[in-house]
Amino acid sequence: MFYDLNTYGEFLNAPEKIATNILADRLLKLEEHGLITKEEHPESKAKIFYKLTPMGISLLPVMTEISLWGDKHFKISPQAKALTKLAEKDKPGFIKSLSKKLSNVGSKRSG
């Protein structure tokens, strides 16, 4: 949602270092609950492109609040810190801008 990751490999190589079996299970559950969809990757037939659905994007305000809370109580990565600073400056603008970007993910890659 916040880091422009859209393929299994991108998720697997993220700093969280999630195990392959857990990642596969979580992606499946997110898809089953209608939060993400799987699409053909526009650049490679060997890859699957994961995209947030409108329902998944609607979680952005909640995830933003959780990120802001986490920044106050835990040490977070510099990348996460930069995002929370943007959200703190203009939360409605941050959410609106990122929602629009997320809604267009996939269309920019295929065009």
Structure description:
The structure is a single chain. By secondary structure, this protein is mainly alpha-helical. It has one domain: Arc Repressor Mutant, subunit A. The protein is 59% helix and 9% strand. The protein contains seven helices and two strands. A two-stranded antiparallel sheet has the order 1-2. A hairpin with a 7-residue loop joins strand 1 (36-40) and strand 2.
CATH architecture: Orthogonal Bundle
Largest sheet: 2 strands, antiparallel
Which spans have pLDDT < 50 for at least 5 consecutive residues?
A: none
Mean pLDDT: 92
Shape: globular
CATH topology: Arc Repressor Mutant, subunit A
Strand order of the largest sheet: 1-2
Q: Give the fraction of residues assigned to helices.
A: 55-70%
Give the count of structural domains: 1
Query: Secondary-structure element order, as H and E?
Result: HHEEHHHHH
The share of residues in extended strands comes to: 5-15%
How many individual β-strands?
2
Instruction: Report the top-level CATH class.
Output: Mainly Alpha
Q: Number of helical runs?
A: 7
Distance between the termini: 21 Å
Kindly provide the radius of gyration, computed on alpha-carbon positions and rounded to a whole number of angstroms: 15 Å
- Classify the secondary structure makeup into a structural class: mainly alpha
